[in-house]
From TrEMBL:
Taxonomic superkingdom: Bacteria
Signal peptide bounds: none
UniProt xrefs under PANTHER family: CHROMOSOME UNDETERMINED SCAFFOLD_47, WHOLE GENOME SHOTGUN SEQUENCE, THIOL:DISULFIDE INTERCHANGE PROTEIN DSBE
TM annotation in the entry: none
Pfam families linked: Redoxin
Residue stretches making up the Thioredoxin domain: 25-165
Organism annotation: Comamonas terrae
Official protein name in the record: TlpA disulfide reductase family protein
Length: 170
């Protein structure tokens, strides 16, 4: 019985440690230079984020939390898209492209979706392995917050409001 508690404690510490590590990397650090290949074959780069507040969400169709949070991600995009907010969902390298396309079409995702076939984008963004992992990038292209797991969307909306009110340059 004691070994079960010990294992549970080690697992909890590992999860908290990963969460703290991911969060600690999200001060006002520049978003990594990345090229995203969108489902339509076009490309977007991190430089394209400048002047907008952008939510970058690493997800997978096999991730139940990712699928569960997607309606809130859609609602967030719809709520702020006309105010200089954008969303980019990045499908993990292990997610079959046909599954991603089917998910996007069946759920009518209104924002851009990229395939990270090589895993290089996830690696550049802090070696993302846990999904969902979400990053909030300000108008200057800096990561200001990151979440592992579904964010508290009420808190996220307050942060987006604050960031949208900020000037693009400081």
């Amino acid at each position: 019985m004691a070994s079960k508690h010990w294992i549970a404690g080690v697992l909890a510490a590992a999860v908290l440690g990963v969460g703290a590590w991911v969060y600690s990397g999200a001060g006002q650090s520049a978003a990594p230079q990345s090229t995203f290949v969108l489902l339509d074959g076009s490309q977007q780069t991190t430089t394209d984020f400048k002047g907008k507040v952008t939510l970058v969400n690493f997800w997978a169709t096999s991730c139940t939390t990712c699928v569960g949070e997607m309606p809130e991600v859609i609602n967030t995009y719809q709520k702020y898209k006309d105010r200089g907010f954008d969303t980019l969902a990045v499908a993990m390298s292990y997610d079959p492209p046909s599954y991603v396309v089917n998910f996007v079409e069946s759920r009518k995702l209104p924002f851009k979706v990229a395939l990270d076939n090589t895993g290089q984008v996830a690696k550049a963004w802090g070696d993302v392995q846990l999904t969902p992992s979400t990053f909030i990038v300000n108008k200057r292209g800096e990561i200001v917050k990151s979440y592992v797991g579904a964010p508290d969307f009420a808190e996220l909306h307050k942060l987006i409001e604050k960031l949208l009110a900020e000037p693009a340059t400081v």
